Amino acid sequence: MAKITLNINKKDYPLDADPQMPLLWAIRDLAGLKGTKYGCGVAQCGACVVHLDGEAVRSCVTKVSRAAGKKVVTIEGLSETNSHPVQKAWQEIDVPQCGYCHSGQIMSAAVLLREKPNPTNQDIDDAMAGNICRCGTYLRIREAIHTAAELQKKAGTKG
Amino acid sequence: MKLFVPKKAATVLSIFIFIVAVGASAFRNDAPVKQITFSTINRDSVESVQAFEIVYKTLMSPRCMNCHPAGDVPLQGDDSHLHAMGPKRGLDGKGVYAMKCSNCHQETNIAGLHMPPGNPEWHLPPAAMKMVFQGKSAHELAKQLVDKKQNGNKDIKKLIEHADDGLVLAGWDPGEGRTLPPVTHAEFKKAWITWLQSGAYAPKK
Ligand code: FES
Ligand code: FES
């Protein structure tokens, strides 16, 4: 065990954790933020995606030591009022089915829209191919990302 | 004796004509004069081609070839299938958007079967210098490796240094359940240097 401070959603969490612990465990079990999901634990599904200094890392295979001194953003911190263009678009299109995969989907989509504000279908496929949805909401995800791109443009914001 | 003089004259004349012709050709801009260069390289095509056999079978093993694919998606496994979820190379070779290599591949291998192997530099060759191994014959690969236009402008010295590149070495530390390259890194490096220093000859095929 070691003392590690994680900055999650702009708040410091002093934690007692093995440096090898998956970041996902620290986020869910130690910091108590349950929005990020565990799907496979082997970097295959994308349910556990969070932002680490802005990149869509898979927290199930990221050691907590890698996150020390960096900024972690989870689905709870993507926006303070659930008003990120991706979140708004997700509501408008009513994307989720069971919802389990969607915190990961949204965190991945947010990185895509930051780097490519007007993504084509191909860009969306390239960015989202690692986020599996076993309910098969892929077409709604694609539509919602186009909607989010529109909302982002109108609001004049970026990611 | 009488015959000897014209013969000698003819020889002198033909040498003279040859010199004039060579001199004249130097001014033709469609046929550049070959520069004479002196090299410390000890050319030996037999030794070079033999060494390249080891280099080739190593580079074409999954641990090396999987990150030198013919397309933009890396390969995986000992059968070199396309990487699950189809991550793309991107301009810098480090992936795109939410699918960057280091989102899953950490600085070190992760313990366990089928877990992502890791290295701080994990990436494919960049889009401008793809350095494809997959599908290349020994002849094609040998030519490509020393072609500065295709190898990131590396001269022999830089190519030799590249044998100890962190990602090259990672091929010999591939993580659980992955077959090692067919020879040790030391054997590979020896063959690589021998191939380069004996003239980097390409096998016929
Ligand atoms: S839980 Fe991390 S990728 Fe599936
Ligand atoms: S909505 Fe159920 S897994 Fe994606």
Automatic annotation (TrEMBL), chain A:
<dbReference type="GO" id="GO:0016491">
    <property type="term" value="F:oxidoreductase activity"/>
</dbReference>
<keyword id="KW-0479">Metal-binding</keyword>
<dbReference type="Pfam" id="PF01799">
    <property type="entry name" value="Fer2_2"/>
</dbReference>
<dbReference type="InterPro" id="IPR012675">
    <property type="entry name" value="Beta-grasp_dom_sf"/>
</dbReference>
<dbReference type="Pfam" id="PF00111">
    <property type="entry name" value="Fer2"/>
</dbReference>
<protein>
    <submittedName>
        <fullName>(2Fe-2S)-binding protein</fullName>
    </submittedName>
</protein>
<dbReference type="InterPro" id="IPR002888">
    <property type="entry name" value="2Fe-2S-bd"/>
</dbReference>
<dbReference type="GO" id="GO:0046872">
    <property type="term" value="F:metal ion binding"/>
</dbReference>
<keyword id="KW-0560">Oxidoreductase</keyword>
<dbReference type="InterPro" id="IPR036884">
    <property type="entry name" value="2Fe-2S-bd_dom_sf"/>
</dbReference>
<keyword id="KW-0001">2Fe-2S</keyword>
<dbReference type="InterPro" id="IPR036010">
    <property type="entry name" value="2Fe-2S_ferredoxin-like_sf"/>
</dbReference>
<dbReference type="GO" id="GO:0051537">
    <property type="term" value="F:2 iron, 2 sulfur cluster binding"/>
</dbReference>
<feature type="domain" description="2Fe-2S ferredoxin-type">
    <location>
        <begin position="2"/>
        <end position="78"/>
    </location>
</feature>
<dbReference type="InterPro" id="IPR051452">
    <property type="entry name" value="Diverse_Oxidoreductases"/>
</dbReference>
<dbReference type="InterPro" id="IPR001041">
    <property type="entry name" value="2Fe-2S_ferredoxin-type"/>
</dbReference>
<keyword id="KW-0408">Iron</keyword>
<keyword id="KW-0411">Iron-sulfur</keyword>
<dbReference type="InterPro" id="IPR006058">
    <property type="entry name" value="2Fe2S_fd_BS"/>
</dbReference>
